[in-house]
Amino acid sequence: MSQNRNLTFGQRFLANEWSALAVAIVIGLVTLATLSSAFLTEFNLYVMLRSFCVVLIVAFAQMLTLAVGQMNLSVGALGGLVAIAVGGMMEKWGFPVPVAILCGLAIGAGGGLINGLLTVRTGINGFIITLATASAFTGINLGITESIPFYNLPASFVAFGTGRISALPYLLLPPVLIAIALAFFLARTVPGRQLLAVGGNPQAAELSGIPRDGVIVMAHTLSGLLAGAAAILAVAQLGSAQPSIGVDWLLMSFAAPIIGGAALAGGHISVAATALAVVLIVIIQNGMVLAKVDPYWVQFLLGALILAAVGLNRLRAVRAGGA
Amino acid sequence: MTPSSDSRARPSWLAEQSNLIGLAAIIILFWFLFTSLAPGFVSSFNLFALSRSLAVDIVIGFSTMVVLATGGMNLAIGSIGVCAVMASGYLMQTIGLPIPVAMALALLLGAFLGWLNGFVIVRSGVNSFIITLASASLFLGGMLILSKAQTFNALPPEIAAFGRMRWGGFVSPLLLVALAIGAALVVLFRFTALGREILAAGANPRAAELSGVPVGRAIIIAHTLSGALAASAGLMLVFRLGAAMPSIGQDWLLPSFLAPVLGGTLLAGGFVSVVGTILGALLVTTLRSGLLVMQIGNFWLQLFLGLILLAAVMIDRYRGVYAERRSLGRKTNLGRKESGRRA
Amino acid sequence: MRLTIEGIGKDFPGVTALDDVSFEILPGETHALMGENGAGKSTLIKIITGLYRPDRGRLLVDGKPVDFTSPRDAIAAGISAVHQERNLIPRFTVGENIMIERPPTRNGVIDFDKVHSEARRFLDMIDPTIDTRTEVRHLSVAQMQIVEIAKALSLEARVLLLDEPTASITGHEADALFAVVRRLRDEGKAIVFVSHKLEEVMAISDRVTVLRDGRIAAAGQPIAQMDRGKIVTAMIGREERVAEMGTRSVDRTKTVMEARNVATSLGHKNVSFQLHKGEILGLYGLVGAGRTELARALIGDARIVSGELRLNGNPVTIPDVPTAIRRHRLGYISEDRKAEGLILTHPIRSNIAISVWRRIASALGLITRADERRIAHPLVEKLEVKTPSIEQAVGKLSGGNQQKVSIAKWLAAGVEILIIDEPTVGIDIKTKTAIHELIGEITREGLSVLLISSDMPEMITLADRILVMRDFAIAGTIENTRRYEPMSREIMGLIHAGSADAAPAAETAHG
What we know:
The complex is a heterotrimer of chains A (323), B (343) and C (511). Chain B is mainly α and 343 residues long. Helices cover 71% and strands 0% of the residues of chain B. Chain C has 511 residues and is α/β, with parallel strands linked by helices. In chain C, the strands form 5 sheets. Chain C has a 6-stranded mixed sheet, sandwiched between helices. A 6-stranded mixed sheet of chain C has the order 18-19-20-15-21-22, with helices on both faces. A 4-stranded antiparallel sheet of chain C has the order 2-1-4-5, covered by helices on one side. The relative contact order of chain C is 0.11. In chain C, a hairpin with a 2-residue loop joins strand 16 and strand 17. At the B-C interface, helix 9, helix 10 and helix 15 of B face strand 2, helix 10, helix 11, helix 13 and helix 15 of C.
């Protein structure tokens, strides 16, 4: 019966999802390479890859909450808190780097756990909960630091943030590992599949014996953990723990997963597509810099890009519905 | 099971107002606290400063409230506000238009940007969260590109003069403007067909549509109104600062939700409280001003605001009204549970 | 495993859904659970499967009391269910959906080969043609149903609950399902078979329990001692006969609505009918026959792509619902009162006046509560809506009173044609009669009604003529003789004519 036709339609659909992004990236690369001689230099590639790292993890942090039909407005605030906590632990308390990093990750995960528990226990919309916790996290951050950054970080830590092999920054290692781990987690492990199941059809998941609330808490916790990881990378990248780390993450965190095709209703996310979306955003940003265009265009284009992606998804959904 | 057996009759007026009374009590408590800890809190200078920022917070809250009424949200309020601000600065300083004309055009711009949001949301059928997240970035970027982020600080002197004006020693006329807008909104939501339609569209869009309410139109009008209100809030800041700055609006997101949510407006749509929003804004402004006067500084303010918002929604969660609404939702259908949730 | 239901009761605001329900489900039997819509079947199922907790009474498994706080607990106790709602994850494969509760893993990693081979084993029991590697969203509704049953089987349940399992599957699939059910029963499992299809129940079950108005009307009666009449009597609380509507005279010369070869964007073909002034025209068919969808097209909520719709003799095109109401005086009462009919959190007053806000507003667009009350109050009185106050939130009313508010809304709007979709779903028997009388009364006052119902007795009680729909087309029109047996045979004949495949399973689908 119609199953076969649907399948091929499904395959085309999948192909579309990838192709739009891939085509945009290729066009961007070719255009920039031909227009600017500086684009393909080793240093420029290094700069691009470096700016890719933090954004990618931030996008993943948001993607996990979107996957279960939630959102996390506190990614940036939590990131800022972890950044100054890690900086403070290393500078003021003289913690060894690995210990400080572990503590930072724990704070991130803890913040996420609070978000998750509050959301599930109160039954209140995650939007309001994370809006409130975002404010609280920022308040703690600013209250502790009074907006003064920590500059004296261990040399080894800062060296990691600036080191590179040719065009490849050391900094790229953690996000690549995280991406692989995340893809594996979502594709092959029981909790990963449960996370997608809850996002795809919450009642069905619940009726199938999946602990829905527990899965939502897990998604928030992982989101916080990743926000913490992104913050630690940002500290390494900047060479100092700025309290302002994270203030500009919000838009980016939604932009990449949405451009990558995450349905806000949950259940449909893709690690690879989100990563591709981040690549596209980074290329656009880099192109703006190379073309010496007003940096404000980045803001404008990001908004336009989200709308375009949403429009495209919508169009596809309508076509799929009609078939 | 006949409903006429009355345990479930309409809650008394007092119960209905309990949220507002609680809020007012908390505000009085804080006033008492701040006044006793820092007498400077009730100085006419501080009260004046408080009344000016209260005016802005109230209108920002209204801007979000009218969209919450439809069950949507508007994350672009800050961006629309700053677009109106910069437009008014440009029209007054560069073009040299008279103040009222420039202000009117700036308001129109705000309304237009809001309309644009509403139009795209209704036409695309996409969640207002995403659309306004994107348009916030789009509007802000557009404004920065056009204005090159330059402040307009050579505005006509009347602007700053009006901003400094005090009535009765400590009341800014801006507060009166905000309250007048509030009165107009009360009329809109209580006594007009349009206001009712917006609430009906928020409470149950499908039922409203099938009852003959033009739901799409109601949503677009609510967003247009939200844009105009955001522009008004921005213009109030122009009066207060005596300049049109591109940084205005960046920190509006939290207060824009705080005021209506503290005041009992439902995130799910279908119910608003104008008086609640005013009280919510008053609580926020009181805290900000009090912490400032006590020299605790702005740094901890964010923490306080976050905790207050959390406390408010959690208290609300345990109130009876909510419990009943929730069980109603649960009875209908497991899947529709969300719609009954209050936030 | 023996599942004992002991004195179970459950209340919702404004209504007691279940009261003192007791019966026992034994291993090795197929136990039918029957009842009309709103009799409490779904609530009982939700309690047994851990979705709801009972307010009174308890469940016992093998004589030991159990307290389920979530579906997990029920599954762990060996109870699994195929619910009426689609409960699959659209973007997961068939195999993964079947094995979702306990996917086979190796070193903590899901072994997808094993997932598919295990799933295959359960799927083969019913339908070997479905590929376990297909994503569920690409399946047809019937295939999804099969997958759900396979999923329930995979849970190795000792009590298997099937809630209307044949509602959307064909005869062959149903036969295969019944064979599986018999086999499982013979293996000693307890099967709870929820259905309102009498023939199906008679064919497959060993015992039957009937619920009526949230109470037990027959508990665990051996099917051998029951016959169709006894079951129906238990279900509706009286003998199966048609209520008297009084003499109705409809003037067939005045046609208020006429469809000529209408095709819609929803897939209707060649729909033609005439609705006369003061007439109740029934629209009968199986779920999925396209009745509600036709209503949507008629009120402008979906497009008419070809053919002609005439109102009072004039061809019209209705662009949207507000236009249908204001210009054409055409209203629609949805079968889903809560999602599409009423605004539950708003008072009765606004719910009635909503359709006339524009009309009663002053030039400035102002309306007052008093204006609304003037509209709503007389109707609340006339329709005898039981409420302490007109300011009461509609959500707190009982189903019957909610339905009266729906009708009041359209009387306020002054519609001339009213489409009523399943008017008595979820309404108890006594109120049902009141609603029926109300519908009769409004037509005597000149309104014309297009009545959609899956309730055969209701249809025969109310309708003057009955249109039978099948596959988004009109299969035929029958003059109502008010004689139940021949009428229902004739209607079923029309429904099944030409669709031999669907016939056996769908037999007297809503009888």
